[in-house]
Amino acid sequence: MPTPCDTLLTCDVLMTQDMARTTINDAAIAITNGTITAVGPKTELQGSFTPASHLDLGPSLVMPGLINAHTHVSMTLLRGLADDLPLMDWLTKHIFPVEQKLTPELVRLGALLGCAEMLRTGTTCFCDMYLMEAAVAEAVHQSGIRARVGEVIFAFPSPAYPDLDGALDVARGLEERWESDTRIRTAVMPHAVYTTNPDLLQRSYALAEELDVPLHIHLAESTTETAQCLEQTGQRPVAYLQDLGLLGPRTLAAHCVDLTDDEISILADSGTCVSHCPESNMKLASGFCPAQKLLDAGAMMGIGTDGACSNNNLNMFTEMGTAALVQKVHRMDPTVLRAQTVLDMATLGGAASLHWPELGSIEAGKAADLIALDLTRPNMQPMYNPASHAVYATNGGEVRLTMVEGEVLYQDGSYTRLDYPALLNEIREAAHWVQKQL
User: Fold this and answer.
1) What is the residue range of the signal peptide feature (predicted)?
2) Which CATH number fits domain 3-64+364-415: 3.50.50.60, 1.20.1440.230, 2.40.160.20, 2.30.40.10?
3) What residues form the annotated binding site for Zn(2+)?
4) Strand pairing of 146-153 and 123-130?
5) What is the DSSP secondary-structure string of 306-324?
6) Binding residues for substrate
7) 220 and 274 Cβ atoms separated by less than 8 Å
8) Which segments are annotated as binding site?
9) Would you give the distance in Å from CA 375 to the centre of its chain?
10) pTM beyond 0.85
11) What is the pLDDT of residues 15-47, one digit of tens each?
């Protein structure tokens, strides 16, 4: 007898990202209670399942949702506010001053806009570090996307807390609020070595261990950061964190641009995960992350967009293409960071970096987080290699469906949970507020 399921999704091409990197033509996916129960040829699954609903996507390439392994989603409100500046000038003279005046409602609106952008361009999960992160979590919950969230922790007061004790209480409160939610998980997120101190970093890591969640931090983002760390501590950033006991599989380090070969080995051997953010690093002239060297050393790597005012978008498809191309020209070797490797980083690597093993591939037992690309677009034909198309030919505008936990959140121009026109009106009002702060 056929097995009941909630949804039977059918499509022309399915790129599973399973261990064998299987691609199936004329494929089907059975989904029950937000979980994939079977994957295979359409003719087989149509005979094996009786779905409550049949979602036929026809000429589409279905693949796992992309995972943005580092961003500051509410910075959509500051997109284009201060461009063409060095990292430290950009951060300390333009971004920090406005951020100190933000309210939870503004943070929530910026996060909603970022969630809409990511859903529209094929991201189903992201890792977010920002101020007043409780408001970000509420936006995540409203939009239906998936995220690992964490309050940014500084060695100085922020709008969310007066001191370190208060910051750690905020992090603990986030975990208590969302610990039973299937789409929101938390992390402890000290900002960077130059905005913290040893006590803050060690207490942050201890809290991450207590809550059994990841620790996420900016690390070795620029030569300026290295110079500051040497001046303040007598050590380079990687060695500094290593001596404080912060490196290991629990830690996800963003950027990792200014690295020596020895530091690459330290990160890889310790099991520290790395989020590669090439477009932000290029825009701020921070340098080039040695991504291929890190991978060759055995490091686990994801890809992130960073925030929308140092990128200036949250589009993981363009980020994948940039990651591949810039590494080739930086190394002057067209064979490095191949398309399949980059796609692995944006799916399976992101899932591992965020400690979310249910994500990253389309196979039985995994979460039904997936996207569909329109194969009728001119730039999508002919298609000989789906992984190549995903990395080199796709720009994100081809996304016609985004599903998280078996729920369609975006399809063919419409959002199912968001009133997008109303959100745009609110964003326009928020932008007027931002301009008044300049």
Assistant:
1) none
2) 2.30.40.10
3) 70, 72, 218, 306
4) parallel
5) --TTSSS---HHHHHHHHH
6) 99, 191, 221, 306
7) no
8) 70, 72, 99, 191, 218, 221, 306
9) 25
10) yes
11) 999 999 999 999 999 999 999 999 999 999 999
